[in-house]
Amino acid sequence: MSISTIKAVLFDLDGTLIDSEYFYYSNWSPILQREFEINISFEDWIKDFAGHTLVRNVQFLRERYKVETDEESMWNKTRAAYAQSDMTSIRLMPHVKEVLEGLQKKGVRIALVTSSYRSTVDTVLGHHQLLDYFEFFITRERVNNPKPNPEPYLLATELLGLPKENIIAVEDTITGYTSASSAGLVCVAVTKHQTEKQRLADASYLFEDLSALPKLIL
Predict the structure, then answer these.
(1) Is residue 2 part of a domain?
(2) Is the model's pTM score more than 0.85?
(3) Read out DSSP for the chain?
């Protein structure tokens, strides 16, 4: 890879650009304990819930724990919990700002492809003053089929108007990796969690943090 071939980078959000998984865990965990007497550790969250949509996690709860719940109920409970929490407390992952600045200076186009909603993007990336780095945002509202379906990345590729060989995706979970790869994109995997490293063992590029990304494509 070189700057002459890579013209755009599509970033995932949660766990890739922002260190949000503990935030989500700390909001889901009390709900699971209170409503269903399910106790999970942060390691359980990373292994079983992180990187998945609400619909998939509700299905997982039904199948694994045999509880009666639905998407609407869990949506209302989790969103109420998020509203009582401070999403601006979510920190950036290491090296995010310097990587975005480096790509921008080199004329690489940058966009976001996430299963989170636009309100989350605006709140967290807005707080860190990063919104202007992104050409566009593919959020949950914009697709019918979220990750691991390829639809989010196919839409992003269409909006970029570039050949797929000129685009790379950056993801931290097998869910996102599957979405990007199924859309025909090279996907760089970036994670520090051993569970995800094992799931992403077949990735062509697997790094612990984003600092390796500019060296790879620039």
Answers:
(1) no
(2) yes
(3) --TTT--EEEE--BTTTB--HHHHHHHHHHHHHHHH-----HHHHHHHTTT--HHHHHHHHHHHH-----HHHHHHHHHHHHHHS-GGGPPBPTTHHHHHHHHHHTT-EEEEE-SS-HHHHHHHHHHTT-GGG-S-EE-GGG-SS-TTSSHHHHHHHHHHT--GGGEEEEESSHHHHHHHHHTT-EEEEE---HHHHHHTTT-SEEESSTTHHHHHH-
The pLDDT of residue 218: 72
Q: What is the CATH number of the domain that holds 169?
A: 3.40.50.1000
**132 and 63 together in one domain:** no
Q: Do residues 170 and 181 make contact, with C-beta atoms less than 8 angstroms apart? A: no
- Please enumerate in sequence order all residues whose Cβ is within 8 A of that of 116, keeping only pairs 6 or more positions apart, or say none: 13, 14, 139, 140
Asked whether residue 36 carries a pLDDT value surpassing 90, the answer given is: yes
Task: Taking each helix axis as running N to C, give the angle between helix 54-65 and helix 21-36, from 0 to 180 degrees, rounded to the nearest 10.
Answer: 40
CA-CA distance, 192 to 148, in Å (whole number)?
A: 20
